[in-house]
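Changelog entry: the Alkaline phosphatase record was regenerated in this release. Current contents:
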Amino acid sequence: MRSVSNSLPLGRIEYSNRDDDQVDEDLEDLRLLHSNDQNQDINQQSTAINLSSEAKGSRNVDDCVIDYSEIPNNSNAATTNRNFNRHDDDDDDYKDDDDDEDIAYKDLDVSAEQLPQPTVQKSSRPSIHHQQPRHAKRVLLIGGATLVGLAYLIMFTATKGTRYDHSVKMNVILMISDGFGPASETFAREFVQKLRTMPPSERKKFDDRWSFFDDKGNLNSTLVAYDKLYGGGLPLDPLLIGSSRTRSSNSLITDSAAGATAFSCALKTYNGAIGVEPKEQKPCGTVLEAAKHRGYLTGLVATSRITHATPASFYAHVIDRDMETKIAKFLIGDGPLGRSVDLAFGGGRRFFTSKNATLITTMPASKTTKRRGPSDTNDDEKNEDLLEVARDRFKFDVLMSNKEFEDRWKGGSQTGGAQIKVPVLGLFNDDHMKFEIDRFNVINDTEKEPSLRNMSLAALQTLSRDAKSSSAHGFFLMIEGSRIDMAAHSNDPIGHLYDILAYQETVRTVKTWVDEANKAGWPTLMISVSDHETGGLTLGRQLDPKVYPTYAWYPETLLNSTGSVEHLTERIKNFKLDNHRSRVAKRQSTISSTGNTTDLTGLRKFVVDEIFKGGLGLNDFSGEELEMSLKLVEGNDYLNLSYHLANMISRRAQVGWTTHGHSGVDVNLYGYPTESVKDLIGSRENVEIGKFIVEVMSIDLEIVTRDLNRLAKVWHMTEDTKELEKYNELKHYSHEF
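Regenerated structure tokens:
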């Protein structure tokens, strides 16, 4: 049984001798309460949203179409600038205490015709037949003052919570270039500039993929801000507004979990934390959850597992980033707030299948009570398929392949995105999605994956279409170039370069979208930032400590590479395995896995022809480099083999790396349009980006944090929770970052 204390805030329940069925009931009640709050907020918005006379028909973005015919124009909306007291304290979890919860979400769009109008007198001269008594004059004065005050109050309420010129909708697109430091921007830019000096035959493969050059051999202005004098820049270059300081609450060098939580919860936390504060490990409301509560649609796009640290920090709350099955439960909606994510594209399918799936763990009522989750009713559900739950219970449209994605999206057609329905979950790889250079070279249709640019454009089309038809607000979309970071962890300049270019391509598309949306009268802004730098990349390397280095690095060294070192290492591993199976078949007997089962002659030829020459694009390899490769293969040391291959190409390009981990340098901060992001100009703490999003979207993290903590003891695990180690499925510091 449970006892409810009348002295507690709404929804805060005290338990005595609770049973697990009652726990499930209360969690469902909490979801409904949160959902009802959200629906009430939406219904309180003004229905007087008029179409802009300037928003005519459809506007093209690249080769796809955005239909802006129904987007509301807020250019004439009554607005009032409001100054906020920014909290610079990194441990401050919530927004200003003086915000009144009762009216925080009651914004109104009041046209001039709806405001109280003064009475128009036919003559300013008083009637000679009737003189008003003095008390009547006082009543009129008081009444007039009341009407003026009421009008001002309505106008103030209409714009409460933001100092920006919008009272109804504001779209925010947060782009995160994981592991991308200042040197990475220079690295990619100078590679592209070097292409301009190359013969057309040598750069053809780049032209086919990236359209870097026009028919006259000039850098394509659609990709770069071309400057003939200096060789051009990348799409991010003109958007630079400042830098972000990246330290976490417990280290000068952050990890992705703490880095992303700084953006999502607007607070510093410890490395490894997903959506929890550092002191007591309590859940903290995120900008995505608050946006959903406020009436926005929400989306996530990533090239990592969608349960990985960065995307997870926007919708999940766990004390350890490795708890990815539990994180998957949050994504589909089986958490304390219900479903907060409307659209999610990425990898990580394995955490949604029955082999890996386990229910969200709750604290047992007693030592003899079996461990249960919010939707756990029997032992068979411990291995439930989360994809089935997503489809059946939470009504997700689940996409499992590039073909399904392309069929739904119909990219490039007049109905781009029209057949993708929210909520939608796209899982295009069992693990992380492929590095861009490997994705582009896939021939087998069943192994193809959508590009970051196409996933992002489909997300923009889908969310904007549904937002303007069903929401009084806009949308929040997080886009992550995830594998920029993972290539840098391997010190792989090839994988790092191509994923940066894929991210730049996506930036170009998003910027075009932002321009078109703003022209149509729908305020939209984009922010691009990294959670941290990875690898300690330097352009310039001293190869011999006894010889003073040459002031140079050589981007052309990367021109002939055809695969990431991860992909090349996997090819060697598969070759050895196939070779072993062939020898076993010929002998018709079992060979010990610890014996020398590899045909060294065949392996040597494969490594030389397919890996060194065909993969890295190197012909000047040394015998020592070859022997080291063979030794690592024989020892099944594939991690160090990947490092060895990466070092071979890095040395020749004279690219340096200081670590296989993260570094503590400040990272570049980009934003657009400049007028909309001017408050981020300069050197900023990463938490300030989260606070900026809260202000510009007029959302409230405190309300969501309150809802999360109402029954946190029931569903949330801390370091004091018994059997916690059972739920840590990965060890991300073993080549998982």
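Residues 555-656 form one domain.
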